[in-house]
Fold:
Amino acid sequence: MANPIEVLLKEKRTFKPPKAFAAHAVAQPRIYKDATNPVRFWEKEARALDWFKPWRKALEWKPPYAKWFVGGKLNVSYNCLDRHVAGPRRTKAALIWEGEPGDTRTLTYWDLYREVNRFAAALRQQGVRKGARVTIYLPMVPEAAIAMLACTRIGAPHNVVFGGFSPDALRERIRDSESTVLVTADGGYRRGGVVPLKKNADEALLECPTVKTVVVLKRTGQDVPMQRGRDVWWDEFVKEAAAYCKPEPMDAEDLLYLLYTSGSTGKPKGIIHTTGGYLTGVTATTRYIFDLHEGDTFWCTADVGWVTGHSYVVYGPLANGATSVMYEGTPDWPDKDRFWRIVEKHGVSILYTAPTAIRTFMRWGEKYPEQCDLSSLRLLGSVGEPINPEAWVWYWRVIGGGRCPVVDTWWQTETGHILITPLPGVTVCKPGSATKPFPGVDAAVLDDHGKPAKAGYLVLRQPWPGMLRGIWGDPERYVKQYWSRYKDIYFTGDGAKLDEDGYFWLLGRVDDVINVSGHRVSTMEVESALVDHPLVAESAVIGRSHEIKGQALAAFVTVKEGVATSLELGDELKAHVVKKIGALARPDDIIFSADLPKTRSGKIMRRLLRDIAEGRALGDTTTLADPAVVASLKAKYEEQE
Ligand code: WT7
Structure:
């Protein structure tokens, strides 16, 4: 019998929404018509939030800066908590958390409300005022959400740093944001081991003069030094704090948070998100795209260190009064069925994860999901990189049992919320396509001259509420990065194709950003980490396709005069990158070369390096200063394979 996935792919099958699902779906087909006036559509969605003061003007658009809901006042934690505890959701589960070792905690909306109030009151007591930045470096524990919400309650913008980042990466983000408080933990559990968060934090803090207070959560119980006058245990910190902390009325355009992401230079950018538009965007998209109903249990598997965790673990679900699942560890601990055990145990009905995870599950085999009861699932989502049709169909068939719509959602740290996506119950899906812009979103594909095209660059022609409001401390880079390719049009950095039905097919980044397992890594950042090693003279890093990760990093390295290369040196360089940035940036290959292919003007020809790393025939080499370099590199690469 033929493999059912291959048959579906060969038939180029489209997937219509199941009738029973469509009948009860939050999104109904008329939603696209309702959004023909986008501003009015977003205003209607904003009214679903609680405002202390209504806005005067829905949109003020002075490219490249948009202001949404001008003059309006609201508070994010109030919208995520206070308005729910005032009604029947008071005892509903807000967070269902599972630690990697198997410990679980459920916090009702009331529990979460209390915890957030106390932590907010303690921060305020510590002198943290509206506008003061707080860096959060925590594992995936409820306290991560508590700290974030507490910051929003007092109007202190948070800067969450992924727990997998190195001390150097943490230091850079604390320094750039000029945070006065750091919230961290002794450690976190990951794949059976312990991540030394406090140790990393101490190392980072050696050069962070702005940080006056470090709040340390006890998670693992490992021994950590506490610096007198600076470090305080979480429990001590909140002990005397008031049970209620009045939410700060925030202007719709007040800074809500910073989140650092890689761009095409070596320095991460602090993406600026503000309050009213962002909350409107995440709340509406969560409800429509994940078809949220009162009884759902929603699990977004992203870490809160990424924007997906901000928008779809914390703010989107909680603003909607939903139950959000949080898991601390990896999918293979203690065994490769951990995700499916969690789905079964907590009755997860909506699962939102990444293509790289789905491809990993495919490789592990069907026996792991098969041994668990996944019948509670009714909707599946994907995000982070293009999902290959094979993985889409596998997800739909094996995890969704052929019953659950799959939503492939495109967005970015900069966009704040999902912008291109199917609507479950409405959209006919084509595996591999993120389908259509969300209602009220004006996405297009343009050619080099700014003309609409079948293939080219993905752009956004009109502002949307959750869009970034700039790059922290670097307005020039904001303009250069996003607004200089086309006039008054946002450039995403992605390539895309449009098919005959107007469906969008994402083709990946067109800049020097590599999407490794759905995480953004800049080639320049890795290159500067490599040349930071004392034995390295020069390096060029490129992305090559990888079966599981989507893309993997290959680093071409020239060592200094007289240095002998070896496998050990290769490993040492990989470790150096991990130390400088974090494990997510570890190159898969290090290729030593006496020289790099350069044009006569000295520019490294990355296209040729990509050809070499992917084993393709070499493109045009006539512009090279020394064509022999490429041939010798190619031979070397093949030898190493
Ligand atoms: C880049 C943004 C915000 C989601 C997490 C990643 C790629 C994201 C898709 C998708 C194809 C996708 C794009 C985008 N991407 N989702 N469904 N299909 N590509 O956030 O780190 O800001 O990365 O991820 O290349 O530009 P991020």
Summary: The pocket of WT7 is lined by residues 261, 307-308, 383-386, 408-413, 434, 492-494, 506, 508-509, 515, 518, 520 (CB under 6 Å). The mean pLDDT is 96. Residues 188 and 195 are 5 Å apart (CA to CA).
